[in-house]
Design a protein that fits this description.
Layout lengths: L1 H20 L6 H15 L7 H12 L2 H12 L2
Helix pairs in contact: 1-2, 2-3
């Protein structure tokens, strides 16, 4: 369980870093979605089922097209 908590903590930290780095490149609606994912992960409760965690993380995965667009945009500069 400790290893899972470390992975979760590192995931949250990474998402926060991404949000800070890409703040200006992500539109406000996507930024709010990412902030909500981070908030849900921070409020993680031990009684969440794996399915509930996957649902939360799938919201982040749903933002991947935005991430790709940001990377493409930045690589053109």
């Amino acid at each position: 369980m400790i290893k899972d908590q470390i992975i979760l903590k590192n995931s949250i930290k990474t998402l926060k870093m991404f949000l800070v780095e890409m703040h200006d490149a992500i539109d406000s609606s996507k930024r709010k979605e990412l902030e909500e994912v981070i908030k849900q992960l921070e409020n993680y409760q031990k009684d969440y089922t794996p399915a509930q965690l996957m649902d939360i993380l799938s919201k982040w995965v749903g933002l991947i097209p935005v991430v790709i667009q940001v990377i493409e945009f930045l690589s053109k500069k």
